[in-house]
Amino acid sequence: MTDVLRVxxxxxxxxxxxxxxxxxxxxxxxxxxxxxxALVGESGSGKSVTAYAIMGLLEAAGRITGGRAxxxxxxxxxxxxxxxxxxxxxxxxxxxxxxxxxxxPIRGVGKQIAxxxxxxxxxxxxxxxxxxxxxxxxxxxxxxxxxxxxxPFELSGGMCQRVMIAIAVAARPELLIAxxxxxxxxxxxxxxxxxxxxxxxxxxxxxxxxxxHDLALAAERAGRIAVMHAGHMVEEADTASLLxxxxxxxxxxxxxxxxxxxxxxxxxxxxxxxxxxxxxxxxPHCRYAARCERSVPGCDAVLAMRPVADRHAVACxxxx
Amino acid sequence: xxxxxxxxxxxxxxxxxxxxxxxxxxxxxxHAVDDVSLTVExxxxxGLVGESGCGKSTLxxxxxxxxxxxxxxxxxxxxxxSDVPAxxxxxxxxxxxxxxxxxxxxxxxxxxxTAADAIADPLRxxxxxxxxxxxxxxxxxxxxxxxxxxxxxxxxxxxxxGQRARVGIARAIGTRPRLLVLDEPTAALDVSVxxxxxxxxxxxxxDLGLSYIFVSHDLNVVRxxxxxxxxxxxxxxxxxGPAQAVFxxxxxxxxxxxxxxVPxxxxxxxxxxxxxxxxxxxxxxxxxxxxxxxxxxxxxxxCGVEMPALRSAGAGxxxxxxxxx
Lengths: 320, 325
What we know:
Order of helices and strands of chain B: EEEHEEHEHHHHEHEHEEHHEE
Number of strands of chain A: 12
Radius of gyration of chain B: 21 Å
Number of helices of chain A: 11
Distance between the termini of chain A: 30 Å
CATH topology of the domain at 91-222 in chain B: Rossmann fold
CATH superfamily of the domain at 91-222 in chain B: P-loop containing nucleotide triphosphate hydrolases
CATH architecture of the domain at 3-222 in chain A: 3-Layer(aba) Sandwich
Strand order of the largest sheet of chain B: 6-7-8-3-9-10-12-11
CATH topology of the domain at 3-222 in chain A: Rossmann fold
Number of strands of chain B: 12
CATH architecture of the domain at 91-222 in chain B: 3-Layer(aba) Sandwich
Helix content of chain B: 25-40%
Radius of gyration of chain A: 20 Å
Oligomer: heterodimer
Largest sheet of chain A: 8 strands, mixed
CATH superfamily of the domain at 3-222 in chain A: P-loop containing nucleotide triphosphate hydrolases
Helix content of chain A: 25-40%
Largest interface: A-B, 42 and 41 residues
Structural class of chain B: alpha/beta
Number of helices of chain B: 10
Structural class of chain A: alpha/beta
CATH class of the domain at 3-222 in chain A: Alpha Beta
Strand order of the largest sheet of chain A: 6-7-8-3-9-10-12-11
């Protein structure tokens, strides 16, 4: 399979009044066509920063300090802003956590889809509206010609997320980044929205990056999972092997902390400690070392992801 | 055993302002809570689940007496509370006995209050504590919740998510309540911290002899903490029973879909019971049709003309469905 996106050694720093926050440090991964890759980790682990860096949407204080991100042959990191604006929405699209906030509140949803079709989808003024209605129908919105005239506040959260998906896939992107797409939605709606994203990916061969804090959701929807911690990627593997045999102590802890349909409260374990201060000049090479029960004297050496099995890599000096 | 809390045919209808400008026409009502009866025994944890818009939050506001019922009765500790107007109840002695833990302590605590102020506020207002007695009670509550005393001087933004959750809980148990209503207490937390907070809640329940009403989207969490569970759909209870049994073998088709939609760590997906569409409107619903009719994967014609009653389904379980024997 060909890689749609290949991220190499991506580093991001934020310049704040409190100092330079090294939010992302040499993160690398690849997503194949038609594949869903999940980025999981606690809040502050750098999942969303990775997405925003790839999209060229980092806020002013954030800077990419190194690395590359290839979409096909295009290095997105080296692409100037004007050219990025032509790639965003066309070749990469993104859906966000709170769809109602991400949509324009004072523009009908049909027009918002038509805008994207006109800009990136090769639509003309005469057929954009009809194609917007088709797009709404394709994401399973009942009575699409009426709903196209609705404003976001008139639609439920699940409906708004379907509109977002319609906008995102309008130009048939090669890559979809879904940043916590179902957080705040009911589980029943979550299932429907995730089904829809899966169908779109299957039909168009688009690659998907699913950003989520919910390991169970990742387990259900992604073929591959990358675990992030404090701006580092710590483990990456096919979903089944990651869950069955996690090698990084942090991944094992995350799995042990996730409530399941069986098991008792006593059997669940928390992840002790918190994220290290990413502002200090002397962040340890392993950012998990202070929380880790398996840390050994060698853990202070320079650390990188290394393969431990087929399609399974881990950044740990003392893996499980 | 006498129930700590008992609800009898409780209704809450909100007018929609649907009347025409000139006062003609018929008023419309949102049937937020319709004919709900339930009990909470001393020391019991009752889970309340359902989609957004099912009436969970309204029911919680009725129980905590922030809202007045349209109809029906609420008994707390054998005293009828439903005839005490919410405005008066704010200064009632039982106010201190029913307390609430809100979803995101970062949002629900006054940002200009330190942790100590936040915990002290209900003690001051409801118990009239001052000075040394107040300080002692604040520290006691903080320690019970595993909140180090040196953090009491901090403001919410200086605390981590887990610490903020502890402040929210300490503030609720300070007045030594009998019943604690927890509205998604861990929704804002990472799984790494969630476990600690859930274990703390479990501990407090045994130590202080509390009863809980636990409202949550996360069925896996509900299952961990709750003895019994009540499933709501569009204002009505559709199923209730022991939590373990309900989640293992749900009787009502809605509960089945809800349970099937929860992502599982083993990655096995249950697509068969997928629920499509949105719930129908809660405004003046057809009194003769099952509220789930139309969205129900197994519904029959009878469901559209006859509202199923909540009936016993054996072993302490109840379900409101014509198809459950």
